[in-house]
Every structure is written in C-alpha cells, then in structure tokens.
C-alpha cells in the first residue's frame, strides 16, 4: 500500500486581536489569572459575517497553493468544526463552493478539539487506499459569537479564540508521511464539556427560556478536563510510538492541540521531553479547538522547526471526551 503525507499547509487568523486586558473590561478576571492558569495572552476574534467556512476556505487556499496543486485536484473535503456557519448544511459544502471546486464529497467531522486528527485519519485512509490522490483536511472555528462575556462565563470564555487551518494530504512512498493514527472516545463524559442547547431533544428545539438561562453557552468542568487530558495525551502519543516500534527518544517534535499551556507542559513532563520538543502558540491564539493543530503545524513549518525525516506526533484531547494521535515521518 502507498503512503500518505501532508503536502501543503495553510492558516487563517482573523486580524482583530483581543488581549486579556480587553476581557477584564467585560468580566471579573485579570491578565495574571488568565496567563497563570491557561498561558493565553491574546486571541483573535472574527467580525460578524465571517464564519468558520471563510477561515477554513482561506486556510485551504493557502494549503492547496503550497501543495503546488489546484482546487480541482482535490478528491475529498474533510471539514472539522464545532462552530459551523449553520446547523445544517455543514461547512464542507460551503468551502467546496467558495473554492470553485468540482462536485467532490464534503465530509463534516464533529469531534471538537480532536476533530482535526479525526479528519486526518479519514484523509490517510483514502489516500493510502488509493481512492483519492489529494484530500483536503480543514479545522476551523469561530467561537467568539457563542461565548458568555459576563463573569459566569469567564472560566470558558478566556480560553477560546477563532482561527482556521488546513492541510492537503497526498500520496507518498511507503514508510514516509502518516505512519498511523489512533482515535478514542469516552461518551460517559460527553456532558463535562458541552453546549446543551438548543437541542433536538426538546420541542421546540429552541426557546426563550433556554436563552434567558444561558443554556446556549459552553459549559466546562475544568478540573475534570484537565485531569483526563494530562493522562490521555501522553497515553495516545505512546500508543502511536508503540504501534510503530518507536520510542519517545525518537520524537523530533510533538504538536499537541493547544488546549491550555499547563496541559501542554504536563504532557512534556510526562513524556520527559524538553520544552523545545513540545510546540506551543496558545499565548497568541488561545484554544482554537479543531483549528489549533493545523495552525500550529503551518507555523512550525514556516519557522523551520520540522525537517525532512523528522518524527512528528500530533495529539489532541477534547469534548466528547475524544482523544487521538497521528505519528508522521516528515
Ligand atoms: C479552567 C482552569 C484553568 C481552572 O483552573 P484551576 O486551577 O482549576 O482553577 P482554581 O481552582 O485555581 O480557581 C478556580 C477559581 O477561579 C475562578 N475563575 C474561573 N475563571 C476565572 C477567570 N477567567 N478569571 C478569574 N477567576 C476565574 C473560579 O470562579 C474559581 O473561583 P472560586 O475558587 O472562588 O470558586 C483549569 O481547570 C483548566 O485548565 N482546565 C482545563 C481547561 C481546558 O483546557 N479546556 C479546553 C479543553 S480542550
């Protein structure tokens, strides 16, 4: 079977920078609390009218250009987001239209912070199996319109930001590129990090009461998320290494989903990796859920932090709970 590798990356960050100081004017929080607990100093917010589809399309255009192909060469779109422009249809079809692509399949993935790695596993399978030569994988999020900017929402709101990233997966010689991808979920924790309303369990599915009670804002059991994340990240990275007969000392770089700086540091410590081998950019963008890994990957390549032959591990944990890793020989 042929291999599959990432042949192009791109990112799209909205220009509006929102610093911690700006949030202190809206809720009872401090720059010190946010930096100490999360590592976030600033994040980007879109203006009204820009959705995850727009950020996804912009990132995708760049990734396709860097791959040296054209939108017409893409055989399948995989779009990971928890913040689609509409309840339905999903964002993938909007990107298909914006990029003027032929009538290829557009698959939407709903695995929140882990969505990009889940999406990458689909691309890996299609390309390795010879079904398509090029698959576009997008992770894009627009959190800012859905956050609670009053004090009760502060624990969640200070963490998240808007952004988009994309990669093109194309064919490779066996043994190069994506070596394996590992996906997990544990639905008993579905309600520890979620948005419960509007809900199709209720009739009608959206009510004034829901909005008045703030049930449409994301809710997070922060301590629970933290405890599970610091266990699952190292576990799923070791799983990928073990599957390929490799060890932590073989790793050139880990690109974790940018959940929270303390989680990223704990992952490095658990694996015994120096800070230089665990990438972090959460300081600038906050947690952009499905977008964080492709944004980080694009930045790493731009900064020359990944060279041909390097062993790179992508890993994510998030709402679901879901967690996943992908081991790549660059
Ligand atoms: C959310 C999180 C940062 C909270 O940190 P923590 O160390 O557990 O918080 P602490 O227990 O020290 O402090 C909690 C207190 O800070 C307050 N607090 C919460 N958010 C705050 C904010 N933005 N500003 C100021 N104070 C805040 C709480 O109300 C609570 O106050 P209380 O003690 O009076 O009840 C932490 O649980 C975490 O990192 N969780 C994982 C979150 C994450 O990564 N989510 C994304 C998953 S993909």
What report would you give on this structure?
The chain is α/β, with parallel strands linked by helices. It is built from eleven helices and 13 strands. The chain has helices spanning 20-24, 31-38, 52-67, 91-98, 115-128, 154-157, 208-212, 222-243, 261-271, 282-285, 292-302; strands at 3-12, 16-19, 42-45, 76-80, 105-109, 135-141, 163-172, 177-185, 193-194, 219-220, 253-256, 311-318, 322-329. A five-stranded mixed beta sheet has the order 1-7-6-4-5, with helices on both faces. It has a four-stranded mixed beta sheet with strand order 8-13-12-11, with helices on both faces. α3 crosses α4 (91-98) and α8 packs parallel to α9 (261-271). The radius of gyration is 19 Å and the shape is globular. The chain starts with a strand and ends with a strand. The model has no long low-confidence stretch (mean pLDDT 98). Coenzyme A (COA) is lined by residues 29, 33-34, 37-38, 113, 154-155, 158-159, 220, 222-223, 225-226, 259-260, 262-263, 287, 318.
- Specify the overall morphology: globular
Series of H and E elements: EEHHEHEHEHEHEEEHEHEHHHEE
The small-molecule ligands in this entry are: coenzyme A
Q: Beta-strand level of the residues, as a percent range?
A: 15-25%
Number of strands: 13
Q: Report the helical percentage.
A: 25-40%
Please state the structural category. Answer: alpha/beta
Give the mean pLDDT: 98
Tally of separate helices: 11
Spatial order of the strands forming the largest sheet: 1-7-6-4-5
Model regions low in confidence, pLDDT < 50 over at least 5 residues? none
Terminus-to-terminus distance: 18 Å
Based on CA atoms alone, the radius of gyration comes out at 19 Å
Biggest β-sheet: count, sense, barrel? Answer: 5 strands, mixed
